[in-house]
Q: What sequence folds into this?
């Protein structure tokens, strides 16, 4: 659907992020900062899913929350439908919040245990002045769209399974008919048997409401399944960005390859070939990241230039951007 629309006219991005940074102070230190997001630029097109993938602590959740202005950025710009949302206040900020929602990783903590499901769902509708008429029948119909029913309306979160709670959290996020939904590891706290159902639900809701997703996960196979394009993040920076299928089948950045090599493959030959290029070690601290390319202490292809000069994220082929000196002139 996106491809068809693009043939008719070029689309403007729904979201454009320019050199975004979010640093956190380290407790007990005036000078040390955690550089959780450190100069990220990207666009999200209307109707697409952009996946953000990387190891735990790489800054992907902070990126999602900063794009939604749940965190104030340290610097940089965030445009939503062409408007710089960093400057929004009052009713304009409230309107942005209606249009840009988030589903969190853990539905056990994201739902208020003291509210019934009906109260949970009515809260945002009331806050944004939605008149839904007969609330009970309205909510019963909406619950059906996420695979629940009116019998769940007056239950409390602890009376629901993990999957049911995440369905409620997803419904709460889409009830206000937002344009953008940031999905932060929406299945990683769920049983494996439920994960696929939730992913399918997210896909069907996207088609139904023409939603745009930012899909955040540490699992590159899930990101590939869900996303049109994916961005690979390492220590606060994007290291590769491109079409999900081609990035997954032909990763350029050694870190992308490392993530993909962790996905089990049935063919032993392919598995052995991947082992040979597997980088080593754990990610360094984002408080004091390595000089030059941040991946250089773990990279099997490290060169002298990598230790001193940071590679920019450059387009190396149509739609593919990579931050690695193997592909950029130096
Ligand atoms: Fe490896 Fe150098 Fe590329 Fe960094 S820039 S990923 S160290 S080859």
A:
């Amino acid at each position: 659907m996106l491809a068809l629309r693009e043939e008719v006219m070029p689309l403007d991005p729904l979201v454009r992020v320019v050199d975004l940074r979010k640093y956190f102070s380290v407790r007990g230190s005036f000078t040390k900062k955690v550089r959780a997001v450190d100069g990220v630029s990207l666009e999200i097109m209307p109707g697409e899913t952009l996946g953000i993938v990387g190891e735990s602590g790489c800054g992907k959740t902070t990126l999602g929350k900063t794009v939604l202005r749940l965190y104030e950025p340290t610097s940089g710009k965030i445009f939503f439908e062409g408007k710089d949302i960093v400057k929004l206040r009052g009713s304009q900020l409230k309107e942005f919040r209606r249009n840009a929602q988030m589903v969190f990783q853990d539905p056990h903590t994201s739902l208020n245990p003291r509210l019934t499901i009906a109260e949970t769902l009515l809260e945002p509708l009331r806050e944004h002045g939605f008149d839904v008429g007969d609330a009970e029948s309205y909510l019963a119909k909406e619950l059906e769209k996420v695979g629940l029913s009116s019998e769940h309306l007056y239950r409390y979160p602890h009376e629901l399974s993990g999957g049911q709670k995440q369905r409620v959290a997803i419904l709460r996020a889409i009830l206000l008919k937002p344009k953008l939904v940031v999905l932060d590891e929406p299945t990683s706290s769920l049983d494996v048997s439920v994960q696929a159902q939730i992913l399918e639900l997210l896909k069907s809701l996207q088609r139904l409401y023409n939603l745009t997703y930012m899909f955040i996960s540490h699992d590159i196979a899930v990101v590939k399944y869900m996303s049109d394009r994916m961005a690979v993040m390492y220590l606060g920076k994007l290291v590769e960005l491109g079409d999900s299928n081609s990035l997954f089948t032909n990763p350029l950045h050694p870190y992308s390859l490392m993530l993909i090599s962790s996905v089990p493959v049935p063919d032993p030959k392919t598995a052995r070939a991947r082992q040979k290029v597997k980088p080593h070690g754990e990610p360094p601290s984002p408080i004091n990241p390595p000089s030059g390319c941040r991946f250089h202490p773990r990279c099997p292809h490290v060169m002298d230039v990598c230790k001193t000069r940071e590679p920019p994220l450059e387009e190396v082929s149509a739609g593919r951007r990579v931050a690695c000196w193997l592909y950029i002139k130096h």
Observations:
- The longest helix spans residues 192-209.
- The CA atoms of residues 199 and 222 lie 9 Å apart.
- The longest strand covers residues 33-44.
